[in-house]
Specification:
This protein is mainly α and 65 residues long. The protein has a domain of 43 residues.
Length: 65
């Protein structure tokens, strides 16, 4: 399920470059400890969580309007 976000919501979801780099670095270090199949499962769950957070933010914004 995909959700279109307004440009205001998209801007609020953009992280500063240093935060993104830190997150990617932490993610790389964390996934290196696991086998490939476990890495795939972890990344899939992380993507699902990111989508759910995005949907919650969209619903929150819609309720505020």
């Amino acid at each position: 399920m995909s959700t279109l976000l307004s440009s205001e919501n998209q801007k609020s979801l953009v992280k500063p470059a240093s935060t993104v780099e830190d997150s990617e670095s932490k993610l790389r270090r964390m996934t290196q400890c696991y086998q490939a199949d476990q890495q795939v499962k972890y990344l899939h769950l992380k993507a699902e969580i990111d989508i759910l957070i995005q949907q919650l933010q969209t619903l929150k914004h819609q309720n505020e309007v």
